[in-house]
Amino acid sequence: PGYGDSPPAGMLATQRDRAAFLQHVVQQLGLRRLVIVSPSMSGRFSLPFLLTHGEQLAGFVPIAPVGTREYTAVQYQQVQTPTLILYGDRDTGLGKQALQSLQHLPRHRVVVLPGAGHACYMDKPEDFHRALLRFLGQLQ
């Protein structure tokens, strides 16, 4: 909500609101032990959800998400969700910035896709899917 062609997200102004919105979506769809793949702007929703409802996730795959600096190392360290941090080596801004914060997640792995930019899943789709499927195959 609030990005692309979706309607404005005025009522989702806070981290708590965005986490509650995503929680509502999960409940309405009846999802259990899901994996959130979160590129770029979706970090505004996925990160607050991860920090408040991470126990509902089987895994988390942030791809250079925005908003990582809004949380402390201590907050990240409390999350036990298996995480695959993915970004392209040509994403010299957000990819590396997000890694600085997300590396505090205790159960993380990092995959850097050579020759890929911010939208690494579009630049190197085969490499992206190979890393994602390997991660998904290791989840319980």
TrEMBL record:
Main localization, broad class: cytoplasm
Compartment annotation: Cytoplasm
Secretion signal span: none
InterPro entries: AB_hydrolase_fold
GO cellular component terms given for this protein: cytoplasm
Entry keywords, A to Z: Cytoplasm
Keyword Manganese tagged: no
Entry superkingdom: Eukaryota
Keyword Cytoplasm included in the entry's annotation: yes
PANTHER family: PROTEIN ABHD14A (PTHR46197:SF1), PROTEIN ABHD14B-LIKE (PTHR46197)
The protein, known as: ABHEA protein
Taxonomic source organism: Odontophorus gujanensis
